Backbone:
């Protein structure tokens, strides 16, 4: 029992400093940073979320509208279009996926043409959130959007982080936007960036690398990515996969089931926690100081748990058939 007062303050652990390589540029007084990616493609960040836009002679095409950036999207668009001497009217808004943390400021742009995958439309109809109007234009496999002489390719490769998450390729701007898969310079947040389809999430960086690009927009934190950043993420994930297989082969479940007897779930939980911790420990030590927040135990541990469960449930690993 804790009592109110000085000793009710939580005991907070220390972590290693965020590597310099993981930190983005400073924000302006309004709390955002906007810069050219290439030619007339620009990106905006508040340090935690990212958005992008094409500034064309026929209007602005916005890619995602995270509510944390919110009104600063308008400010960033106004700032850039004034400098570029093109109209500041947002005519199109592309949804990467239906999640509110990337789309919840969509309503700020009123009556624009919204474009998204058919599954994004279905999920937004389900969610019935006035902040995220359903897309007017949908596609199943791919869609080429051309506005004011600028071209972008929207491609669906199946479920990954979410059922509807798409690849946004700017072939004329040497850029790929793929949200909530790779956090540049950082480990994924809990459970592989809260991903719903683990095999789809694991293969997404490989698909991303098949495209031609130099600049990568991952949707989170304050930096633009390069191909080396995606390779580092792939190594971190591959190490977790390897370590998970090793832990499944080496941790003996017997003591957990012996100890808890008819409380089957206590035995299962004890065993799975032991496998997860054994698999995560070497990865946490290897990446501490390399990827930011690798030493925050819950992050690598829950990501390892998701991968372990996918090895068991999707791949059939560690299953024993009763004789
Ligand atoms: Zn998401």
Residues:
């Amino acid at each position: 029992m804790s009592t109110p007062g000085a000793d009710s303050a939580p005991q907070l652990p220390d972590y290693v400093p965020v590597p310099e390589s993981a930190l983005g540029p400073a924000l302006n007084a309004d709390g955002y940073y906007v810069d050219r990616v290439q030619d007339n493609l620009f990106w905006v960040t508040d340090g935690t979320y990212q958005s992008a836009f094409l500034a064309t002679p026929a209007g602005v095409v916005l890619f995602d509208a995270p509510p944390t950036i919110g009104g600063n999207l308008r400010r960033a668009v106004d700032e850039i279009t004034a400098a570029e001497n093109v109209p500041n009217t947002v005519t199109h808004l592309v949804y990467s996926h239906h999640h509110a943390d990337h789309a919840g400021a969509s309503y700020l742009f009123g009556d624009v043409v919204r474009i998204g995958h058919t599954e994004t439309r279905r999920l937004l109809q389900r969610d019935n959130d006035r902040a995220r109007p359903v897309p007017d234009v949908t596609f199943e496999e791919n869609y080429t959007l051309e506005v004011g002489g600028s071209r972008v390719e929207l491609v669906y490769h199946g479920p990954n982080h979410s059922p509807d998450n798409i690849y946004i390729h700017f072939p004329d701007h040497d850029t790929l936007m793929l949200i909530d898969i790779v956090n540049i310079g950082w480990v994924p947040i809990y459970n592989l960036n809260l991903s719903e389809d683990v095999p789809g999430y694991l293969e997404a960086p490989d698909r991303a690398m098949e495209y031609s690009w130099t600049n990568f927009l991952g949707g989170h934190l304050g930096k633009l990515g390069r191909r080396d950043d995606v390779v580092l993420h792939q190594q971190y994930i591959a190490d977790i996969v390897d370590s998970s297989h090793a832990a499944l082969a080496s941790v003996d479940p017997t003591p957990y089931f012996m100890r808890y007897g008819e409380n089957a779930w206590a035995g299962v939980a004890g065993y799975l926690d032991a496998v997860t911790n054994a698999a995560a420990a070497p990865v946490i030590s290897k990446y501490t100081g390399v990827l930011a927040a690798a030493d925050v135990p819950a992050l690598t541990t829950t990501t390892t748990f998701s991968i372990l469960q996918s090895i068991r449930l999707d791949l059939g690993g560690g299953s024993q058939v009763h004789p």
